[in-house]
Design brief:
Belongs to the MsrA Met sulfoxide reductase family. This protein has five helices and eight strands. It is of the alpha+beta class. The chain has a six-stranded mixed beta sheet, covered by helices on one side. The longest helix is centred in the middle third of the chain and has 11 residues.
């Protein structure tokens, strides 16, 4: 089993999107790489904690791999949009790839480098080690499963 943390705007859609992918064993919505321990949603929404709404993804590397997951991730985010995805605006909605293993960094960097020519604007996705991750409140977990008509800024039918 391997892990990666992905920030792509509101975590509800990213969580639901990856929970449907082959080889993904677990997803969990949370807050990553900020300065406040165990922040609340309300604190994160102020933009003062430094956290990004992020989804923890555990996957079976015998069924999928990091490059395939990143390919899917880039299908549902705008990697050139700084602190904004869909209607969500603020630093907590920035895009990021937060790795949990140093061996993943060159894979991530090569993936992004290979995508640069596809965009007119610079890619602004953060690539950093995962410094911290705090699970979001229970009502955020599996939100779109619990609320099928809830807000989602991405097309969940994309493969």
């Amino acid at each position: 089993m391997k892990t990666i943390a992905l920030a792509g705007g509101c975590f509800w859609g990213i969580d639901e999107f990856f929970s449907r992918k082959e080889g993904v064993l677990l997803t969990k919505s949370g807050y990553a790489n900020g300065t406040v321990e165990n922040p609340t949603y309300e604190q994160v929404c102020t933009g003062k904690t430094g956290h990004a709404e992020t989804v923890w993804v555990e996957y079976d590397e015998t069924e999928t791999n990091l490059e395939l997951l990143l390919t899917k991730f880039f299908k549902v985010i705008d990697p050139t949009s700084l602190n904004k995805q869909g209607n969500d605006v603020g630093t907590q909605y920035r895009t990021g790839i937060y790795y949990t293993s140093e061996e993943d960094r060159p894979v991530i960097e090569a993936f992004i480098e290979g995508r640069r020519a596809k965009y007119a604007a610079p890619i602004v996705v953060e690539v950093e080690p995962l410094k911290n991750f705090y699970p979001a409140e229970e009502y955020h977990q599996d939100y779109l499963k619990k609320n099928p008509r809830g807000y989602c800024h991405i097309d969940l039918s994309i493969d």
